[in-house]
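Case study B.
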Amino acid sequence: MKKISKHFLKDSYHIVDLKLCSVRLIDNSRFPWVILIPKRKKISDIFQLNKKDQSLLMDEIVHISKIMKKTFRAFNLNIEKIGNVVPQLHIHIVARRKKDITWPLSVWVIKKKSYSIVGLDKVIIKLKKNFIKNRKK
Amino acid sequence: MKKISKHFLKDSYHIVDLKLCSVRLIDNSRFPWVILIPKRKKISDIFQLNKKDQSLLMDEIVHISKIMKKTFRAFNLNIEKIGNVVPQLHIHIVARRKKDITWPLSVWVIKKKSYSIVGLDKVIIKLKKNFIKNRKK
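Model:
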């Protein structure tokens, strides 16, 4: 998977590959959190994608939003393109709940906390199951 | 402008209306920051927009991203759908610079600071000028 920056590989786990994006779970047990990484080289901004890929990105954001909302019974979704630290284009989708640790503030106001091994397994299995059930045609 | 929540009206200023979104400057002098508000009723998530509006939203995000990047000579753009406090769907586009006050951290880790009257006028004029110059057909 040469198109994925090594920065992502150390603190996230592969969930599924869609047409445009690779979807990975962020290792932060505070929030159910995935990133979508378009499998294109040297792209750091949405406007650098061609029109077809921009449209695919929107479709995949919508698809994954629905799965995140349902899987984690989210009250709200935070969908963010930041990239201040890792420039390769990636979109965060975070399932927010009114009882989560920073609600209603941003997920960025608190340091991450890794999953336990068991917790990590559980969330990965749950997500993969829901991705298979709602497979994108 | 009945379709725009009153929450936005008190701390942001109208810049331009596009086909789908109303674009407003956020009154925070720490960062050049606009929000895009789709002029649709009772929508709080991107996936609630119909397919045509999703596509329009992507087009307008791309259009405004380019203008924000150019107008403020941004090093990077943060593009975020949060909505934890104000549920009406809105997308933040923030021009980030390596010298800004929270770089490379999120804009959410610091409290806002309003523009001076002169500063506000200046940034509104600058933005409007660039929107007119790059008018979306």
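DSSP finds three helices and five strands in chain B. The remaining cases will be described in the next quarterly update.
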